[in-house]
Amino acid sequence: MSAYLLRRLLTTVPLLIGINLLTFVLFFVINSPEDMARMHLGQKHVTQEGIAKWTHERGYDLPLFYNGKAEGLEVLTKTIFVEKSLGLFLFRFGHSDAGRDIGADIRQRMGPSLAIAVPSLIVGLLMDISLALLLVFFRLTYLEVWGAALCIMLMSISTLFYIIGGQFLVGKCLQWVPISGYDSGLEAIRFIVLPVLIGTLAGVGSGVRWYRTLFLEEIEQDYVRTARAKGLSEAKVLTVHVLKNAMIPILTGVVVVLPLLFTGSLLTESFFAIPGLGSYTIDAINQQDFAIVRAMVFLGSFLYILGLLLTDISYMLVDPRVRLQD
Question: Which of 30, 189, 215, 247 has its CA 20 to 30 A from that of 143?
């Protein structure tokens, strides 16, 4: 087990290095600091003096990898790569192009993002699995046929429709909850109920259809026929045996959304004016604040790799064959 975990940990290091290098190339080589200055200051009325001032104030006027004008170790450390990218490995995100502390902003906005993402994930997962098991229980009946058709219909509806329709119906017409905004403490519940409800409803079609497919594949296995031959009820076969043996693909599907727990949902937070990391990223893109975008890209990639590592660990808990391969 320890050797298995060690191998997985060692594979994450080159992945993070590659992501960091790729992010650096995208933001500083392909899109040079002069290009960033022109986009930030405006293409028409920008001057060379304005570009030089903008890049100097943000430390973008340094060489990329090697500073021939410096002395000693500063030939390597006094570079854009070390000052702007190397610190990301230590979660030192630095300051935005507007001068704000990115690390402080992330810590402040992480709470609202988690307040929406965690309930949406838990409620959505429980609902999807329960409805998928229900369709499998009533397989080859009209309930399964109409349920599958309803899932396809729900998958065909855009998330924007759920957001706008939910705001209009629940927030404006019925006035049960606020349409937008956020508050601290228990008052935040009023603001997150509708986003969580919409987030769950928007994903129920694809989720139920996906889990239904997994359960239908498992239900034809030999161990299911053996369990039925022992006299177990169909409900117990589904909830005990089929669900347990389908946990590996379920865990794989859950890891895809793990980064959203921290980075937030871009559309939901923007439309509901939730001060989370999703709206933080959208605002940075609109304001062309490349330092924030670069930090969020690296943070999202790191969280995704961390999710893959956690998935590998969970595999050992639900599948003895993984432990036997160690």
Answer: 247
Q: Let me know if 320 is exposed, middle or buried by CB neighbors in 10 A (0-12, 13-18, 19+).
A: exposed
- Among residues 80, 39, 42, 38, the alpha carbon closest in space to that of 62 is found at 80
pLDDT in the model for residue 320? 60
Taking only the tens place, the pLDDT of each residue in 108-127 is 888 888 888 888 888 888 99
Within 8 A by CB and 6+ apart from 118, the residues are: 261
| Both tokens assigned to 294 | 């670069």
Assign residue 293 the CATH number of its domain: 1.10.3720.10
In this structure, the answer to whether residues 25 and 150 fall within a common structural domain is no
Range of the structural domain that residue 21 is part of = 2-90
For 141, the 3-state DSSP assignment is coil
pTM: 0.77
Phi, psi of 30 (to 5 degrees): -65, -45
* pLDDT given for residue 131 in this prediction: 92
293 or 8: which carries more pLDDT confidence? 293
Q: Domain check: are 145 and 229 in the same one?
A: yes
Domain count, the chain: 2
